């Protein structure tokens, strides 16, 4: 009998795949405090850790356009001081607890995320309550953080990828919500003062409409007792941030933003896509995986592996409450600008007119589903996934049924969503690069709208 421990493996034979791992999700219990704060909790033993997400309806969709970046600035100022503690003391408090703390803002919501050892839960929740309920937004801290934000925005203006991204959403959405950067512009952030921050915080940081998600080594009684003690006196209602109106997709002349001396062109092919809750959600996911969502996707294999023109080419549908953008993007030498556009558009057209292969469907399904259990291994990951469900109004069984719904997508459905969303007459083409080098490669795309970097 051959000893399996000493047998020489046959390198010519591919090992059999391991059995599929089942997606095991913890069960979340739902509670609501008398003040309207919703609490969701999943007890998860094994590691002495807890992850918290406090989700608030305080995204860029409810800030005045003239004060773009107000929600982002407010979130950054949450730890800048409370009565009795300045920003340095708040930082020392957080450091003593060993807590990971992050405040973020998107178009719809803002979220404060925390991760810590379960033994410091009550102290960590007290810190969270202090930042949400007691932030004072002192004038000198508002000025300091505002100056930091303006400096960041001005530095990003030297990054061609950032320039291309901002110009693309502006072309797609104009002055509508998704056409503006969440972080604002140097001009809008400059107009934000302490009173605007305090007013925004008072209006949008309220328990009615907020959601506290907890996952980890924590039982229900301990969570609810601390939540009622620390957040029970919080008052107020906040309406859900609505989805913005969807603009009609339209094609433009090819836009070339001149950045003299650039060695590369940042290329974007974009259009208005779909919201999260769309009937063809899963077909879009599979289609994008095949087109540009994976390393082995068509545009990456074409531009990187076959042509050797780029380090990577990708595409994505950015699902939001409203119809977010579809963007295919890459960076190539300026002398390859026109040919790169031709290859991307050719791959899109093939997706619209020719059924994808069985091997491509299998690869996309496996890539999207076999790694799913790895995305639910930690309390941080689980809180993030549940937050997404609640923010975008996804079904309670969204993740449990994700695999079966992805596997049910057909090649015909993939072609249909490409026809629906990737109409060449509604694609915006944009490049940021050296016009002197890139423009001569664009003869097939005339007229070309050449602009200077603003």
Give a nutshell description of this structure.
This protein is an alpha+beta fold and 454 residues long. The protein has helices at residues 70-76, 87-97, 121-133, 139-156, 160-173, 186-190, 194-204, 220-231, 281-293, 298-306, 337-353, 358-369, 379-392, 402-408, 411-421, 435-438; strands at residues 29-32, 38-43, 49-56, 81-82, 85-86, 100-105, 110-117, 211-216, 254-258, 264-272, 313-317, 325-333, 428-433, 448-452.
List the helices and strands and how they pair.
Elements: E1 29-32, E2 38-43, E3 49-56, H1 70-76, E4 81-82, E5 85-86, H2 87-97, E6 100-105, E7 110-117, H3 121-133, H4 139-156, H5 160-173, H6 186-190, H7 194-204, E8 211-216, H8 220-231, E9 254-258, E10 264-272, H9 281-293, H10 298-306, E11 313-317, E12 325-333, H11 337-353, H12 358-369, H13 379-392, H14 402-408, H15 411-421, E13 428-433, H16 435-438, E14 448-452
Parallel strand pairs: 2-8, 9-13, 9-14
Antiparallel strand pairs: 1-2, 3-7, 3-8, 4-5, 6-7, 10-12, 10-13, 11-12
